[in-house]
Amino acid sequence: MNIESLIKTALTQAVYIKGKKLRVGVYGLLVKESRVLMTHTKSGSKFIYNFPGGAVDSNDKTLEAALIRECVEELQCDVIVKEQLFTSQKSHVHEDFPAFCSLNCYFLLEAVGEEVAPGAEVDHVAWFHINQLPLGQMLACDKEFALFYF
Hints:
- This protein is α+β, with helices and mostly antiparallel strands.
- The chain contains three helices and nine strands.
- Strand 3 (31-32) and strand 4 (35-43) form a beta hairpin.
- The relative contact order is 0.24.
């Protein structure tokens, strides 16, 4: 089964890869003047920077709907999902959550309005130049996307 089929199946039923439950993540890229918005959040036992987004919930009808919901929660703003940019080419296992593996989809976003503000799940938001991303403070899945895309 290819990656796209795995993700589609995981939206409606539990999927396991090598004994680990698959978690589908959706993340967005907001770009302004060669800068990208990142959230600073706690992930397991450490704080990281990542792109706005998160896990697809069972209530989400599509990947895009999940990303819009996540952006409202994390950035307190509505977004328009423009296009899909990237899908993980391998599953990632977070050291603090070994029972799960993640496949992530990344989308280009457009903010509705100018203001973004950290939601309850986010410590703060920051704009980084595309050539100065905090790679040392990012999860492997986000690094995979950043190194591919930028």
